[in-house]
Amino acid sequence: MNILVIGNGFDLAHGLQTTYKDFLRFTDEFMIYKTAMENRQELGWENDEDTRFYKYFIDLFNERRIGNSADKIINELDILIKNNVWLNYFKDAQIKNGWIDFESEISNIVKEMDKVKMNNEGVMSKSGLQKMVVFLHFKKNGMPDKIDELKEICLQDLDKLVRCLEIYLSTYISAAQTKETIPDIVTLPIINKVLSFNYTNTYELRYKNHFLLEYDYIHGKANINNDIGTNNMVLGIDEYLKGEERNENIEFIEFKKFYQRIHKKTGCLYRNWIDEIKSNKQATEISRIFCEDGNQKAIESQVKYHKLFIFGHSLDITDKDVLRDLILNDNVQTTIFYMDKKDYGRKIMNLVKIITQDELIKRTGGAAKTITFQKIIETN
């Protein structure tokens, strides 16, 4: 079995604007453009090459005038973006790197709420209230004084943020120009399974090459036809509690990824793959052969190792539970792609958090080696 694990770096390698900065800028410029349209103002963006979304917004608001689905998108985006505590916070926060920090910042807020849920009836202390005002930019007269009320606001606005992201990925990104293929993926052995931490279907569009290919969109999949209630995209945090407290303190469980995966029914097909790996010491690999009539057919053969390829995933601890189960199998050979020396070092550090230092040392050298790092081929 050959499994490909992809993260946001996979989409970025295909030229897609899927960083947190792209998304936040999209929400900012939407509100600017909407206000200008309502006030019949000229934005003067035509010659601003740095403004990425100008044509998209021009088309969207022009289409609104003829009464099609663009009107629904505009109205929904307005509701999702306006006064969203998370969007307001992220725009001001000093976030450094990609979606990891998006999730890390959510984790910081949730942990802080956990700390300041003080008092016998869940009423926040004065110091706790002040902290949350700073964190989430509430006006003091609009700040809820009970932790349950604050938690509900944060959950509702997180749902709005995720649906807003779904619209962005389903409309703007789906129409964006992408690189057809990238060499590192093209030259892989035939992939049987794709475990995607992305919300997009880039691999399906560019590389689907046989009918036996199986996908697991473990964090859900963007679909413009959803709404805030049917959206199944997971955007949350890792478990931060220890020991029995993990099971006893479930106050903020709705923010955690494992809960969201179950609640949003994203499916866990990868668990079936792991069961198969553990039960079969020998791996099955699919190869293509060319027939005399020019057609191709797939044949199966037995090989010693299952193969795991990880491309564009940061190996951050927020996905530890999934990645650890895949990597820590003695009959699995893992190849981890990295961009440059800095990225290589970062992935080594993150892998320590996932599988421990001892496992990393054992699996990157000697007779028990099962992990290889490979530099991504540079393209123009």
Folded structure, characterized:
- The chain is an alpha/beta fold and 380 residues long.
- The chain folds into two domains: 2-14 and 179-218 and 268-375, Rossmann fold; 20-173, no CATH class.
- The protein contains 16 helices and eight strands.
- It has helices at residues 8-13, 20-38, 54-64, 69-81, 85-92, 98-115, 126-136, 147-173, 183-186, 202-207, 245-248, 257-263, 269-279, 320-327, 341-355, 357-363; strands at 2-6, 193-196, 214-217, 283-290, 296-303, 306-311, 332-338, 371-375.
- The strands form two sheets. The protein has a six-stranded parallel beta sheet with strand order 3-2-1-6-7-8. The chain has a two-stranded antiparallel sheet with strand order 4-5.
- α2 crosses α4 (69-81), α6 (98-115) runs antiparallel to α7 and α15 (341-355) packs across α16.
- The radius of gyration is 23 Å and the shape is globular.
- The model has no long low-confidence stretch (mean pLDDT 83).
List keywords for this structure.
single chain, 380 residues, alpha/beta, Rossmann fold, 2 domains, six-stranded parallel β-sheet, two-stranded antiparallel sheet, 16 helices, 8 strands, 46% helix, 12% strand, globular
